[in-house]
Amino acid sequence: MNDPMKAASWFAVALFAFATASPVTAQSWTADLNTIRQAARSMQGALPLRVNVVKFAESRRTKNFAVKGSPAEPSIQARTAYQVVYPDGTVMIDAGMDQQVHRFFGRGVEEPYFPAEAHKVELALVAAKAIVLTHEHGDHIGGVIRHPAFPSLAPKTTITRTQLQTLMTTPQMPEIKLTAEQGLRFNVIDYETVRAFAPGMALIKSSGHTPGSQMIYLVLQSGKEYVFAGDVAWHMDGVRSIRGKDAPWITEDEPNMAAELSWLNGLTRTEPNVAVVISHDEDQRLQYIRDRILGDGFE
Ligand SMILES: [Zn+2]
After folding, report:
1. If you measure from the C-alpha of residue 295 to the centroid of ligand 1, how many angstroms do you get, rounded to a whole number?
2. How far is the CA of 142 from the centre of ligand 1 (A)?
3. Which residues contact 9 (CB under 8 A, 6 or more apart)?
4. Does the structure show a pLDDT above 50 at 222?
5. What are the residues facing 226 on neighbouring strands?
6. 238 C-alpha to center of ligand 1: Å?
7. Is residue 220 within 8 Å of 50, Cβ to Cβ?
8. What is the Cα–Cα distance from 94 to 104, expressed in whole angstroms?
9. Which fold has domain 4-296?
10. Over residues 279-291, mean pLDDT
11. How confident is the model at residue 9 (pLDDT cuts 50, 70, 90)?
12. Which residue from 58, 57, 76 is spatially nearest to 66, judged by alpha carbons?
């Protein structure tokens, strides 16, 4: 399951980043699905077979925080990580977090944390050939930074220079602050718009929720496609209605968020083969498991 040579060759090939014709202007965010597909298909190697999800914690927040204008009805925010299964190993999308980081998100309230599930995430990180992160918040990256095996996880964890910068200078919480020495242990990349990451996988620069946010495109051998949207929205209703969050404790780039929500909304209308995956949407997680779009648990 662990083939460092393979992982190294992925990274080498991934040095070829897609520099699309996108002049530096103040225009709002945009992305082109066909360019993204081309990037994902540009890397040699067998495509992945399936994707699994684990929910290791929950936050209980009324819906109005996740989707502006929604009624203040009870809502479960799942905390999740994803395992992409290749014929010869796995790639992790996001890394979970330990219970101490989880408590930060409760802001004084003890919220559900599932130690057995969190342990599965820890094991999956160790077994993975590579780890990539939608963004630099504690619930997505804490599992690498605070893992007992951090020294062996960091070199196979790809983070963007922007993610690293945030983690070194203005981390979401003190527990995930990186020193320069720790930062140097990661596989740090820089790209403009889209970048091949692994066979069938491409990264889509999507700053907004955080400066280092990215979406992750994936195509399976079956042809099924995914866009892991991270925290661009906290619930799919935000994509359906193109409405952002209403959470006073976060600061986002509003024009980028609006553009990213619009793009995802367009995908749901014009690209029925693409499953948009929202990290914290518990309703969607259950639906995707029922529809066999996501496997329930890691292997
Ligand atoms: Zn999150």
Report:
1. 20
2. 11
3. none
4. yes
5. 218, 275
6. 15
7. yes
8. 18
9. Metallo-beta-lactamase; Chain A (3.60.15)
10. 98
11. low
12. 76
Place of tokens 């009805």: 73
Rounded to two decimals, the pTM is 0.91
Give the type of residue at 37: R
Q: Are 132 and 203 in contact (CB under 8 A)?
A: yes
Give the integer Cα–Cα distance in Å for 50 and 244.
Answer: 30
**Tokens representing 193?**
């718009």
List of E strands, 137-182 = 157-160
First to last CA, the chain: 11
Q: Report the candidate in 25, 82, 50 with the shortest Cα–Cα distance to residue 255.
A: 25
How many whole angstroms from 66 Cα to the centroid of ligand 1? 11
Ligand 1: centre distance to CA 45 (Å): 31
Tell how far the Cα of 46 is from the centroid of ligand 1, in angstroms: 30
Q: What is the CA(5)–ligand 1 centre distance, in A?
A: 31
Token pair 């648990």 is found at: 297
**What's the burial of 247, exposed, middle or buried (CB within 10 Å: 0-12/13-18/19+)?**
middle
Q: How confident is the model at residue 12 (pLDDT cuts 50, 70, 90)?
A: very low
Q: How far apart are CA 180 and CA 169, in angstroms?
A: 10
User: 3-state DSSP call for residue 225?
Assistant: strand
Contact present, 235 and 224 (Cβ < 8 Å): no
| pLDDT tens readout for residues 191-211 | 999 999 999 999 999 999 999
In the reported structure, the alpha carbon of residue 244 is separated from the centroid of ligand 1 by a whole-number distance in angstroms of 14
- Structure tokens, 53: 């999800």
Measured in angstroms, how far is the CA atom of residue 79 from the centroid of ligand 1?
7
Could you read off the pLDDT of 111-165 as tens digits, one per residue?
999 999 999 999 999 999 999 999 999 999 999 999 999 999 999 999 999 999 9
Rg (CA), the chain: 18
